[in-house]
Request: fold
Amino acid sequence: MLTIRSLVVLGLLWATADASPQSRKKGGNGRAKTAQQQAALIPQGVSKATDGSMILDTTWPRHPLQDLRSRRRLHPESGVPGGAAAAGTPGTMGLNVLLHANPPRSAGDGGQSFFDFPNQAVQKNLMGVAVLAPNKNLFWGGGSGLQRTDGVAHAQAVADLVTKVLPGVAAFNASDVSFTGVSGGSLLLSGFFVPAHAAQFQGASGGVLLNCGGLAPQVDVAAADAAAIAKTRIHFQSTQQELSSLQPAIPQAIAAYEKLASGAGAAADQIGVLQTVDNSPNGGHCEFDEKDFVSGVQLMADSFSAIMQGGNGQVAGKNVLNPVVGNEKLSFKAGNRRSMAAALRV
Reply:
């Protein structure tokens, strides 16, 4: 029986000797440590979640698509509740898999929403999972800005993690899997993961929450994936003072996903229920509470059930469930004119 309710997987933490000027901390050789190397210094293991359940922090030992080594500090088969005993055992709880923001120094990030684990508390029978990006900069999709040069490989890695790795770590209901993106995590989900893997997860009853980021599909979308997208719950959440580079990208993503659903035979009223959008908060990038990056992301995590699981759509007293149909052209303020490259310090 599953005893780990909130599960954090330090996934894809691949070892590398490369250094990056992105970090101000120095290693023993005097070179700056990469964001990934800094993350490796944070202890893994078992801890307690905010709701009193357990967190397992561990590393995927090796990505099957790439000949790369990684560190794994805690072996699930070592007797940790929910480890080997749960392997291959269907569970009753679903998953909410979170892909963190990229590491903008201005937001105090460095995989910030991975380590904060905002979705750690169980909501309506979904346990939280947070996954760390698989490169030295902790940058989902690699590349820089809106150009995600490793997006295809990273999307495949996320799919493999859910379908091949997690079943050997914890018992869960594979038919109830949702995904949450934050900034760069949203870019990977919308640009690469959903377009290429929607059909693979079409049996799942969950959806995709895209926070402060969105890309139109960057890969070809097969007919089966388009058909699955037409049945998938998707919410786009942004703010009035979004990054200037994202202000056109998010509406383009909204229009593209609406078109995919329509092309797959979904009627406008069906699309309006499944695909929703909001950018009413008068805050900057990911500041959904109109105050701060971290607390804003936490607000959205706390509101997941209200938005994605049939709730009333209320976030901080506002209904965010606006149908994308008729709301494709979002209006933004010019308050945040930083480019994404500058904001993410890449």
